[in-house]
Amino acid sequence: MGTTADKRQHQVAAWLTRQGLDPAGLTPLAADAGTRRYFRLATPDGPRVIMDAPEQPLACQAYLRIGGLLGTAGVHVPAVTAADPDAGVMVLEDLGDNSYLDALAGATATADADALMEAALEALVRLQAATRPDVLPVYDAARLQAELALFPAWYVRRHLGVQPDSAWMAAWQRSCRLLVAAALEQPRVWVHRDFMARNLLVATPNPGVIDFQDALLGPVTYDLVSLLRDAFIDFPPAAEARWCARYAEYAQDAGIALPAQLAAAVDWMGAQRHLKVLGIFARLRYRDGKPRYLADAPRFLAYLERELAPYPALAELRELLAALPRPESAQ
User: Fold this and answer.
1) pLDDT at residue number 240
2) Residue 198 has what DSSP assignment?
3) Are residues 81 and 112 in the same domain?
């Protein structure tokens, strides 16, 4: 890394040297959907992960603060052994490469998948049970609506090449108001916002949780949706129902308030999240030059069909989506 002309890489190498670490053995890890970079580094005390987040002091500060909250709640997050938020560099505990995504995809028995998911649900409930007001920003109506706006802007217009007319946009806005209102009606807890298999690592104790710096105070079903209706892996409906029921047991035992109709709340929250993620994935392709995420668009469209179908109030939204070209026919 230090042999390149990349000024940033030299800055990181110099900072590591000041921490008494030898940057010569830095090895790149998997790319992040954002602008952060991760490296593995061998040290006398064992391997460490170096997070490089240039010009992101607030994100680094949030990582340190929220990591402390989650650790106190009993959630296994990487320990921070050195950090300079202003420089955007941190040295983290290395929890390994075995993600839940890989482990679940390779699970050969139902019991193996159940053990992994039940550990994840227990960790989620510990996170939610630790909720305190006025600690994290609120996942409010403005943020929910801004996320939904990514769908027509990036997925419909930019990816599909469709220019919605005024009638389409009016129907879209009506549907968005319904989804936002439903989200705001849910009990509020601390929300990781990407509590999914790629951000859970097989570790001791299980799971190790990463990428939590964007946590907010928001709808109680949000992280459950992220886990059960994953961006990159499908679960059988029977397994999803079993894990949802197990979550409800754990949550009730922990005194976490749940919506009266949990399955419906999961569907409505899922619709908001999956529309948002389709917009984000399209933006990653066309703005950020990261096309691989859109390959999973059919999975999200299938989720949306499941989530919208049972509810007459969402029929208008279902019709809007059904009228759009399928991804394979987009330009």
Assistant:
1) 96
2) G
3) no
Per the structure, the count of domains in the chain is: 2
Closest CA to 271 of 188, 181, 210: 181
CA atoms of 299 and 274, how far apart (whole Å): 9
Domain limit, last residue, from 93, 115, 133:
93
Task: Give the pLDDT confidence score for residue 31 in this predicted structure.
Answer: 62
Residue 1 falls inside a structural domain: no
Helix (H, G, I), strand (E, B) or coil at 95: coil
| Same-domain pairing of 153 and 13 | no
Confidence at residue 4, expressed as pLDDT on a 0 to 100 scale: 40
Contact of 219 with 139, CB cutoff 8 Å: yes
- Select from 241, 285, 286 the least CA-distant residue to 266: 241
- The long-range contacts involving 57-66, CB below 8 angstroms and separated by at least 24 positions, are 57/85, 57/86, 57/88, 59/213, 60/85, 60/88, 60/90, 60/213, 61/85, 62/213, 62/214, 62/215, 63/90, 63/212, 63/213, 64/90, 66/136, 66/212, 66/213, 66/215
* Dihedral (CA of 105, 70, 269, 158) sign: negative
DSSP 158: I
The span from the first CA to the last CA of the chain, in angstroms, equals 38
Nearest one of 306, 291, 93 to 204, comparing CA atoms: 93
Residue 2 counted as domain residue: no
As a whole number of angstroms, the distance between CA 218 and CA 216 comes to: 6
Q: Low-confidence residues of the chain, pLDDT below 50?
A: 1-5, 329-331
Single-letter residue type at 132: R
Instruction: Write down the pLDDT at residue 107.
Output: 81
123 CB contacts (<8 Å, ≥6 apart)? 75, 76, 207, 209
Any idea of the CA torsion for 116, 118, 122, 127, to the nearest 10 degrees? 60
Question: Nearest 5°: phi and psi at 219?
Answer: -60, 140
For residue 331, what pLDDT is reported? 45
Tally of CB atoms within 10 A around 166: 7
